[in-house]
Amino acid sequence: MTHSLARSLVLAGASGLFLPLSFPNYDLGLLAWIALVPLHWALDGKTKTQAFWIGWLSGTIAFTGLMAWVVTTMNTYGKVPLVISYGIMLLLTIYLGLYVAVYAAGAVWFRTLIPRYGLFAVPCLWVSLELIRTYALSGMPWGLLGYSQYRQIEIIQIADHMGVYGVSFLIVLVNVALAELLSWLMPLLRKFRPAKLPWELVAMTALLVGLSWEYGLRTLEEGSFSHIPRSSLRVGVVQPNVDQAAKWDTAYREETLARFDRLTGQLGRTTDLVIWPEAATPFLFEREPIYQLHLIALAYHAQAPILFGSPSIRFYPDRKPYLLNSAYLLAPDGQLLGRYDKQHLVPFGEYIPLKSSLLFFLDKLVEGIGDFEAGPGPTIMTVTPQPDAAGTSPRPVKFGVAICYEVIFPDLVRQFAANGAEFMVTITNDAWFGRSAAPSQHFAMVVFRSVENHLAFARSANTGISGFIDPFGHILDTTPIFTEQAVRATIQAWRPHTFYSRHGDVFAYGCAIICALLCLFSYFRTKEPEPDTVAATPI
Q1: Nearest to residue 510, comparing CAs of 127, 119, 155, 109?
Q2: HSE, side-chain direction, 13 A CA sphere, residue 117
Q3: HSE-up (13 A, CA, CB side) for residue 491
């Protein structure tokens, strides 16, 4: 192994280690702004093919650190043997690492295509790959780079125009500019021939970061004085901490309901909406009349509608049954006010892709995984707050529900906002993740859904993290994982109509168009022999 290759592998590995440290549970978000610098240095003098392999190594290491919880989920709860669980995780991280591989090869190619100025398009390539990852093969947008900044409220306000992809763009741009600037400085320190100062890239980066920060500060300031009509709701969330192993055991049914009864009672009788987690009822709600009466009694005692998750069963024309992962809104008088059926199902969790052909063997390997069908689309529900102190009845308020995995898909949540939701609820059962970083990573993504649409979120999770987020991404309250909790907060309901909620991922698609135009430019330009290596300064 040559010294140059060894140096590149070490640098690529460093980026692979820095990236997962930027996310929960480590929460070193500032590290994301320099995490890709070593990778860019590793690409110095490499061909596109070499860059691809270096990027693949870096990406595989990064996603292995980020997705280690997959082993816990598959082995502990899916009953998949440990060796196979590690194999599945490795297959997943190798696949996700391919996106970093394409990015690395593209960074070298863009620099060769348009010397010096091709680097301006490198962040567009990263965003385009994140967009593809959101939809390819059912979609896996877990750990998009922008999510590392969920605590940096000022800088992430640009997501109300560009989505989480805009924050990813900014982070990559800073990494590229720093890599160029430091590459210009270090040869001077080492008495090498200095490269030309990349002042255009550095200046544009500083300008965009400054403008983004200023926009964030202005948005947070103006949000407090907006003239858009608002309503306030007192929302309570219940975190029952039901053991996943006992969840569907009929012997624990009464104990589970008693726990919900006790925790719901702790919220008092002045709550406008009570939220239970995904699949809260240890039975099919529509098929158990006796337990239906029990839930109605709980809602009556709370004097508030209860939103809860419960599977529902339907039948194909041939009378073959199938399941829906549903959320029901039950009024205190027993009236069913609405139901939402989950649209985006979890691969290997709620259905097995290619089960009838390629992955038929997983039918016996994965225990406890039922076959669900997707619901028809976003459903808006309505809740009416209790009369205020003067006896005035507030207007009804509309809201949407995202179940578990759905909340990691920006456009799916955006559709609820576009259809009139004034606040959002997300219910989940993160017990599958165990005591890993996944519950914190999952919660961090909800912050961005709030900022993108400027809608408040209430989150109820079986084992946590439950809590509340305001319309600008401030985390109002959270619960520890694996504890019994009932917490209440007053949240704002309004319809701000952000650019993102109206137009969606136009920024991300714009980045994809720029990359496509560069490909066309490369295709139609006059062909010249390409050198085997790039003799320019490191990216």
Answers
A1: 127
A2: 2
A3: 36
Does 27 lie in the same domain as 80? yes
CA proximity to 416, closest of 447, 449, 460: 449
C-alpha 33/C-alpha 31 separation (Å) is 5
DSSP state of 149: G
β-strands 336-341, 321-330 pairing: antiparallel
Residues 265 and 216 in one domain: no
Question: Domain for residue 490, yes or no?
Answer: yes
Return d(Cα 158, Cα 164) in angstroms, integer: 8
Asked if 230 and 394 count as a contact pair (C-beta separation under 8 A), the reply is no
Place of tokens 């809104």: 329
Tell me the β-bridge partners of 493. Answer: 231
Phi, psi of 14 (to 5 degrees): -65, -45
| Per-residue exposure over 378-402, b if at least 16 CB sit within 10 Å of its own CB, e if not | bbebebbbeeeeeeeeeeebbbbbb
pTM of the predicted model as reported, rounded to 2 decimal places: 0.91
- Examine the pLDDT at 309 and tell me if it is beyond 60: yes
Residues 174 and 246 in one domain: no
Taking the C-alpha atoms of residue 195 and residue 188, their distance in angstroms, rounded to an integer, is: 9
Task: Name beta bridge partners: 233.
Answer: 491
Our count of domains for the chain comes to 2
Confidence of residue 537 (pLDDT cuts 50, 70, 90): very low
For residue 328, give its domain range.
231-495
Dist. CA 131–CA 119, nearest whole Å: 20
Would you call the peptide bond into 465 cis, given omega within 30 degrees of 0 as the criterion?
yes
The pLDDT of 285-310, averaged and rounded, is: 93
d(CA 169, CA 55) in angstroms, rounded, equals: 18
- DSSP state letter for 150: T
- Show the beta-strand stretches assigned E in 195-304: 231-239, 273-275
Compute the half-sphere exposure of residue 207: CA atoms within 13 Å on the CB side of its CA. Answer: 6
Same domain, 193 and 293: no
- Contacts (Cβ under 8 Å, ≥6 apart) of 446: 407, 426, 457, 459, 469
What distance lies between CA 484 and its chain's CA centroid? 25
> What are the angstrom distances between the C-alpha of 527 and each of 108, 521, 530, 534?
18, 11, 9, 17
Which residue type is seen at 141? P
Using only the alpha carbons of the chain, give its radius of gyration: 25
Give 351's pLDDT tier (boundaries 50, 70, 90).
low
Beta bridge partners of 143: none
Exposure string over 37-64, b if 16+ CB within 10 A, otherwise e:
bbbbbbbbbbbbebbbbbbbbbbbbbbb
Cα separation of 140 and 145, whole Å? 13
Q: What residues act catalytically?
A: 278, 342, 404
> CA nearest 427: which of 458, 452, 385, 468?
458
